[in-house]
Structure formats: structure tokens, C-alpha cells
Specification:
Chain A: Pfam families: PAS_3. The structure holds two protein chains of two kinds. Chain A is α+β, with helices and mostly antiparallel strands. Chain A has four helices and seven strands. The longest helix of chain A has 20 residues. Chain A is globular. By secondary structure, chain B is α/β, with parallel strands linked by helices. Chain B folds into two domains: 143 residues, Periplasmic binding protein-like II (D-Maltodextrin-Binding Protein, domain 2); 95 residues, D-Maltodextrin-Binding Protein, domain 2 (3-Layer(aba) Sandwich), CATH 3.40.190.10. Chain B is 39% helix and 21% strand. Chain B is built from ten helices and eleven strands. In chain B, strands 2-1-3-10-4-11 form a six-stranded mixed sheet, with helices on both faces. Chain B has a five-stranded mixed sheet with strand order 7-6-8-5-9, sandwiched between helices. In chain B, α1 packs antiparallel against α9 and α3 crosses α10. Chain B starts with a strand and ends with a helix. Chains A and B meet through β6, β7 and α4 of A and α10 of B.
């Protein structure tokens, strides 16, 4: 996965190095501008067992700001925002790998450094009794729930940094 | 042997004749007898499904998931270019401009159409409205949903987008659309049950070639369909997964 570049990002922005669960790293750039989630839209994507994107709908492309070709085959964590605590995604993977359905509020990172909040649901795709991949649907979140998550995730991030 | 076919009760009333014409066409293609039974509501149709009285069904996505998982049905085809979208509307006189303007304890007018009710409730979530906070007035048709709004007996109403767009101008002029879903990936599908297994391939072949001759095109036009897209098993599994994420 390519590092983010200033030429593609709305400035002013900050820079940080993210380390993902698979131990890969990426330089990400982010700013303070939120993209409102449009009413009525659902973002739909599917990944393989490793979390690489195999399908994304037009709403996914519109919100993330990447072309379809830039997304297919890339890890879903291309959208990971540095404000998201690693523990949230660890819980997601633990849940879906054991066959469960995961719900949560997620702050996603756009290609241009802006962000958008979603209420995400992820389920495993069971075929012939085995997990063959994962489907994720993101919808417009309740603002009051997002406000609760902003402070909760900040505390979780602080705890991770201090650990 | 006589097979039984039915259609999801949410189809537009102006297509009743179209489904009878389709059934006649299909019988000729298969050289088999098929009885078309149109149920007034989802409850009656579910009873027929549970009693294994249905072999072929044009089902909404919510029921399609149940038919595949619990009744061993196979999705054969879906109309090209059509998706199930929902509209949330209010009375033209309502002060509600956005979903967030709604009180948490609001009143919803809805039908027993399961996927539209589900999508409608999802679109209310950003206002912290849930099934625990709303009062639902369930009515029999989308025209009655409109009536509930016009008579100010409900704050918002859920409509199948196609039904909302086909309301008479007199009715629609008294309503205002607040949100229309943009999901794209959820749609009605034609499913066949285990009792008609030996005809599955013949039905798919007939539907795939339907747009190739004038008669078939006429039948499609009566349903306002362009053509049929033949589905693979994975297409159906994907839609079922999607419904699972929403449920």
C-alpha cells in the first residue's frame, strides 16, 4: 500500500506513521475536515480472508475518494484513520473470524486527508460451512453516538500510547 | 403436474395483468402447467411458503434470504437495472425538513413489506430513532401510508421508491420526500423451489432469451422490465449477506 502524499491531500494536514495488524506500515496524512455522510447511502464492500478489498460499491468510492482500481486488491485498512484505536479493529477481527457479526462506529480516512464517521457492520461470508471472506456495510451514524465515540476512542488511544 | 407461482405482494397493481401474461408465456416455454396465485399481503404469502405451496416466486430480498436458507430455493434471475430503494416522506405541511428534525418518539406509517420497513428504520437511525422508540402504524398499502401522512396520523411514512413515484399526482402533491435510499445492491429476484428443480435450467434458458423475440419483449414491457439477468449462486449469497448486515 502506497504512502499518502501531500500533493493529494487538502492542507493544512498532519503526518503520522501507522503500523497495521499485519505489521506493515504506511505514512498517512490527515486534516480536520469532516465529510458529512449523505442521507440514504449505504457503503458496501467485501474482502477476502486477508482483508483485501474484492468489491466496493459506488458509495464507497464516492466517500473514500479513491478510484475503484486503487481500492480493489488493497487492504481495507487503507481507510484507517490514526484516531482509531487498534483495539477496535482487534475486536472486529476476533468477532468475525469466530463467525460473529461486528457493529461499531468508525472514523475513516479519505484519500484527501479528510474523514467521515460511519456505523459499520461486518459479517463473515459462510460458504460450504467455511468463512470465505467478509462483507461490510457502513451507514450514516447517530451524531450523539459519534460524540460518545470521539471521547472514548481518544481515551483508548491514550491508553495504547501509554502501554 | 401443476406448479405454483406467486409474486411478492409489493408489486405495483398496474402489473397484475403483466404477471398473468408472464405466467402464460412461461407455461408455453416450458410446456408445463403453472398456477399463478397473487396474495393480498405478506402474511398470506408466508403461510403458503411455509406450507410448501410455492414452486416459483418473484420475491423481495428479505424473503429471498429466507427462501434460500430455510426452504432450499435457488435464485434464477433478476430484472436488469432495477434495485429496491426506499423513500421516507412526510406530509407537505410537516415542519420536518431532515430526519434529525424528528422527535425520537415519532410515529411511522409503514406496510408489512419487510425490506422497505428495514431500510426505512435504518434511515431513521441517525436521529437516534429505533424500533424501541417509534410507534408503527402498519397499513395494507402504500396509498394508505400516504393517507396516514396527509391526515397527520403519522410523522413519517416508508415507501417502496417505485410505489412512491407512482402515487397519483393528487396524492403526491400532498407529500414531501425527505430521504431516498441509495443502496443499489438489493433487488427482487425470481426464485425456484426444490419442487420444480427439474425445470430450473429450462426456466433460466427461457428468461435469458426473452428479450430476443417480439413476444418476449411484449411480456417484459407489461412488467416494465428491460430483460432478465441470470444469477449465479454467489450473486444470491452476496445479497443474503447484505441483508444479514442490515437485519
Amino acid at each position: 500500500m502506497k504512502n499518502m502524499h501531500k500533493a493529494e491531500v487538502i492542507e493544512p494536514c498532519e503526518q503520522t506513521l501507522l503500523t497495521y495488524q499485519d505489521t506493515t506500515e504506511r505514512v498517512v496524512l490527515f486534516n480536520e475536515e469532516e465529510v458529512p455522510f449523505p442521507d440514504g447511502k449505504l457503503i458496501v464492500s467485501r474482502t477476502d480472508l486477508e482483508g483485501k478489498i474484492t468489491h466496493c460499491n459506488q458509495s464507497f468510492i464516492d466517500m473514500a475518494g479513491y478510484d475503484r482500481g486503487e481500492l480493489i486488491g488493497e487492504p481495507h485498512h487503507i481507510l484507517r484513520h490514526p484516531d482509531m484505536p487498534a483495539a477496535a479493529f482487534a475486536d472486529l477481527w476476533k468477532t468475525v473470524e469466530s463467525g460473529g457479526k461486528w457493529h461499531g462506529y468508525v472514523k475513516n480516512l479519505c484519500k484527501d486527508g479528510r474523514y467521515y464517521w460511519v456505523y459499520a457492520t461486518v459479517i463473515p461470508n459462510i460458504r460450504d460451512g467455511k468463512i470465505s471472506g467478509y462483507t461490510s456495510v457502513r451507514r450514516k451514524p447517530s451524531r450523539s453516538k459519534v460524540e460518545g465515540c470521539i471521547s472514548l476512542y481518544a481515551q483508548m488511544k491514550q491508553a495504547e500510547v501509554g502501554a | 403436474m401443476i406448479y405454483n407461482m406467486t409474486v411478492s405482494p409489493d408489486f405495483p397493481p398496474e402489473h397484475i395483468a403483466g404477471w398473468y401474461i408472464f405466467n402464460t408465456w412461461l407455461q408455453r416455454q416450458l410446456n408445463e402447467s403453472i398456477h399463478l396465485e397473487l396474495y393480498n399481503d405478506f402474511r398470506q404469502q408466508r403461510d403458503a411458503i411455509q406450507n410448501d405451496k410455492i414452486d416459483l416466486i418473484y420475491a423481495n430480498p428479505f424473503d429471498a434470504a429466507m427462501l434460500v436458507r430455510e426452504k432450499g430455493f435457488t435464485a434464477l434471475a433478476a430484472p436488469v437495472g432495477r434495485a429496491d430503494e426506499a423513500v421516507i416522506a412526510v406530509s407537505e405541511a410537516s415542519a420536518i425538513q431532515n430526519i434529525e428534525d424528528l422527535p425520537v418518539q415519532c410515529t411511522v406509517a409503514s406496510t408489512d413489506d419487510p425490506d422497505i420497513h428495514l431500510i426505512g428504520m435504518i434511515m431513521l437511525e441517525p436521529a437516534d430513532i429505533s424500533r424501541d422508540t417509534v410507534q408503527v402504524h402498519q397499513v395494507g398499502t402504500y396509498v394508505l401510508v400516504a393517507k396516514q401522512l396527509i391526515q397527520q396520523k403519522a410523522d413519517v411514512g416508508f415507501f417502496l421508491a417505485e410505489a412512491f413515484d407512482n402515487l397519483s399526482s393528487f396524492v403526491s402533491s400532498q407529500l414531501r420526500e425527505v430521504i431516498r435510499s441509495q443502496i443499489y445492491d438489493i433487488r427482487h429476484v425470481l426464485l425456484a423451489g426444490p419442487g420444480i428443480q427439474e425445470q430450473h435450467e429450462a426456466i433460466k434458458t427461457a428468461l435469458a432469451g426473452m428479450n430476443d423475440d417480439e413476444k418476449g419483449q411484449d411480456v417484459l414491457a407489461n412488467l416494465s422490465f428491460e430483460s432478465w439477468e441470470i444469477l449465479q449462486q454467489e450473486d444470491t449469497e452476496f445479497m443474503i449477506d447484505l441483508m444479514d448486515t442490515l437485519a
